[in-house]
Write a structure and sequence with these properties.
Length: 76
């Protein structure tokens, strides 16, 4: 699995994401050790994150781009 730990800006709001992630053979995002907080430091559950499809899609794009840099998805 790859690791991501950084700030993400989406629709003018800043979030902090720390997770291990991978994309399975069907290109579905798999998360482990998921922690996401909003600008106020409030934790957002993985379930609430996945229900917010706009934010979820944005994060998937960021993580897919990160994976592409790591030799086609191999762990960095």
């Amino acid at each position: 699995m790859n690791t991501y730990e950084d700030y993400i800006t989406h629709q003018g709001k800043e979030y902090y994401l720390c997770t291990e992630y991978a994309f399975d053979h069907a290109d579905q995002l798999q998360l482990s050790g998921f922690v996401l907080t909003d600008e106020d430091g409030e934790e957002i559950s993985q379930e609430a994150f996945e229900e917010n499809t706009d934010l979820y899609d944005h994060v998937c794009t960021i993580l897919a781009n990160e994976s592409a840099v790591c030799y086609g998805g191999a762990p960095c």
